[in-house]
């Protein structure tokens, strides 16, 4: 795949989009469902009742069903104003046999020959995919399920602007045409013009950075674009993630380390994120692992001031212990793993992993001491 095609992110998905069968802002047609597996929903009845409808298109595969726990939480949180409808893209039989279908919050139906999906889905979208229909029965938004939390909050607090969202989609289509024509300088000018109207927009800044790096070989300009977005949105981790990917080259070791330092400091209240980043760093091939980065991330996670619970803290400890072990400190790794084992005592899977780690680090510590005598 050519570098210029790799855009990623929410705006990137929109930038690859072509016209959908249903325009944003248009009245939503009734759902084309071949069979309701659990409950049922009529969009006409939803409009009459003045309730928002969240359509989520999913499959029974691991990736296609991954957002379900998060969606269940959102459905519970917004239950007084919105109804979630899970439209399965698999046959009704497969949906009925899906493990946990009874625990899904809201109605569950099987799409009729993917008619409903094709009504809402744009060319650059992929399942799992969500669409929101407001209390007036209009399609007001579509995109990744991970964006639903912020979108619904904005919709219900009155800060969501439908016309601006329509404008963004039109911009995305024009940008898509420009990128397909490989007119990258014009695409960058279009993004700059859009940034004048939306200063610091994180998705625009991320897209600009990726284009500068991949099509203009301008790494400094790409990082500068990210810094603009970070200054306006200090909690937008996606911008940091783009920076990490751009600085992964062998010549940017110091710059990459500095970005990890910033992440460890700025996201110290999110130990789960830091632990996951450390885990991803350790997952690289042995020659490509930056141990100093894995260590600082996992250490920051382990020493976080607040955790969602013992399990989160215990998992952070296991990752920190692993980094310590790889850094040549098996005795310290053993001590941290023992603490993690206590924290994970009520989590069978985590407890077994911690127990195995304790045994292993104990053996290595003993052998290390013996070898040094």
Please characterize this protein's 3D structure.
- Helix 10 runs antiparallel to helix 11 (219-232).
- The chain has helices at residues 9-15, 43-49, 62-65, 68-77, 92-96, 115-120, 148-157, 162-180, 184-197, 202-216, 219-232, 237-246, 253-266, 271-282, 291-302, 310-326, 330-343, 348-371; strands at residues 33-38, 52-58, 82-88, 107-111, 129-133, 139-143.
- The chain has a 6-stranded mixed beta sheet.
- It is an alpha/beta fold and 373 residues long.
- It folds into 2 domains: 3-160, Glutaredoxin (3-Layer(aba) Sandwich); 265-373, Serine Threonine Protein Phosphatase 5, Tetratricopeptide repeat (Alpha Horseshoe), CATH 1.25.40.
- The longest helix is centred in the last third of the chain and has 24 residues, at 348-371.
Question: Which characteristics define this entry?
Answer:
9% strand; alpha/beta; 373 residues; single chain; Glutaredoxin; 18 helices; Serine Threonine Protein Phosphatase 5, Tetratricopeptide repeat; disordered N terminus; six-stranded mixed beta sheet; 6 strands; globular
């Amino acid at each position: 795949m050519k570098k210029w095609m790799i855009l990623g992110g929410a705006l990137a998905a929109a930038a690859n989009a072509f016209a959908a069968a249903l325009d944003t802002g248009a009245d939503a047609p009734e759902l084309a469902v071949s069979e309701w597996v659990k409950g049922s929903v009529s969009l006409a009845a939803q409009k009459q009742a003045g309730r928002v409808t969240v359509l989520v298109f999913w499959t029974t595969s691991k990736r296609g069903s991954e957002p379900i726990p998060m969606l269940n939480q959102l459905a519970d949180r917004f239950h007084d104003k919105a109804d979630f409808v899970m439209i399965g893209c698999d046959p009704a039989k497969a949906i009925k046999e899906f493990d946990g279908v009874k625990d899904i919050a809201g109605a569950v139906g099987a799409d009729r020959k993917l008619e409903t999906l094709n009504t809402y889905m744009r060319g650059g979208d992929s399942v799992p995919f969500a669409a929101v229909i407001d209390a007036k029965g209009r399609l007001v938004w579509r995109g990744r399920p991970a964006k639903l939390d912020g979108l619904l909050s904005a919709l219900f607090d009155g800060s969501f602007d439908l016309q601006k969202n329509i404008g963004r989609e039109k911009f995305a289509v024009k940008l898509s045409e420009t990128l397909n024509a490989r007119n990258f300088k014009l695409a960058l000018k279009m993004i700059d013009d859009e940034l004048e109207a939306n200063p610091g927009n994180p998705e625009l800044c991320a897209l600009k950075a990726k284009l500068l790096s991949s099509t203009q070989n301008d790494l400094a300009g790409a990082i500068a674009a990210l810094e603009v977005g970070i200054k306006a949105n200090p909690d937008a981790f996606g911008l940091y993630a783009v920076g990490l990917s751009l600085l992964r080259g062998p010549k940017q070791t110091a710059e990459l380390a500095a970005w990890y330092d910033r992440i460890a400091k700025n996201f110290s209240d999110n130990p789960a994120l830091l632990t996951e980043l450390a885990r991803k760093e350790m997952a690289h091939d042995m020659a490509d692992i930056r141990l100093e980065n894995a260590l600082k991330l996992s250490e920051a996670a382990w020493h976080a001031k607040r955790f969602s619970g013992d399990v989160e803290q215990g998992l952070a400890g296991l990752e920190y212990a692993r980094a310590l072990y790889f850094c040549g400190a098996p005795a310290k790794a053993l001590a941290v793993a023992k603490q993690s084992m206590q924290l994970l005592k009520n989590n069978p899977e985590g407890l077994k992993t911690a127990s195995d780690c304790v045994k292993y680090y104990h053996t290595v510590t003993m052998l290390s001491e013996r070898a040094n005598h």
